[in-house]
Amino acid sequence: MTVVLSVEPTVSAPALRLRPWRGEDAVALVAAHRDPLLRRWLTTSLVREADARRWIDDQNDGWTAGVRFSVVKGGVDPTDASAEVGYWVSAEARGRGIAPRALEAVSAWALGSQCMMPLARLDLLHAVDNHASCRVAEKCRYGLHSVLPAQPPAFPTEGHLHVRTNTAAESVSVE
After folding, report:
1. Domains (ranges, CATH) in the chain?
2. In this protein, which residues make up the domain named N-acetyltransferase (predicted)?
3. Is cis: bond before 149, omega within 30 of 0?
């Protein structure tokens, strides 16, 4: 099953289509990973097209296996099931409100009435000094839950854990 989420345009930004990664995205993925600001926050650095294709294959394999849409923490009890959500925006698209619009669409879908996997909560983690990600999380109603200790080498600085719970039915256009 493939899920494509559509986000309506705004006065200042175009419509968005959120879809799974494809092999032809590898070149753009490597180009985005050349950005030093983006690399500062990522735990993975994709330098070559072959690396990007492997990463895309891993994402798609995880989706097929039912573990890449989300890493489920909890049992089959829908009141306990949670997942982690993350995002990044390439340098040329930053500052146009894309991250909050995309995060809102994914959050509404994941916490809404989609039948794939009922979730009670979404966790969002970012480095404490990633102020842009903190603003996006707050804008999308992810409350600051706790400050997490650094875990070098993968996470060299403290982190913020933001949480959004499924408190009401949410809806989004899904194709």
Report:
1. 5-165 (3.40.630.30)
2. 16-175
3. no
